[in-house]
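ARCHIVE CARD
Drawer: 12
Card no.: 0347
Subject: one protein chain, sequence and derived structure
Cross-reference: see card 0346
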Amino acid sequence: QVQLVESGGGLVQAGGSLRLSCAASGRTLSSYIMAWFRQAPGKEREFVARVSWSGTTLYADSVKGRFTISRDNAKNTVYLQMNSLKPEDTAVYYCSLSGYWGQGTQVTVSA
């Protein structure tokens, strides 16, 4: 059984930064693609970023140049560094591994 626990969300002003973490247990991360998704109120869940086992990254156009995904396989943890945050980044952020999902962490960006 895989468990994913996100942390690091909060309230921040526009232009600020937050760093999200996702700690995995029950499976070694190193062989899997890890991804971040988000879901804003009244909207569908959308892809944000992913990182392969080798460190190759992919970003949604809406966050490219502002967000950075990284992983620490030794700690079984994936991170999402979010800079230059905008009000439209407000959402619950979820990490995902091989079909498993965490409980999500709320990110709220005030104007």
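Annotation on reverse: The mean pLDDT is 94. The radius of gyration is 13 Å.
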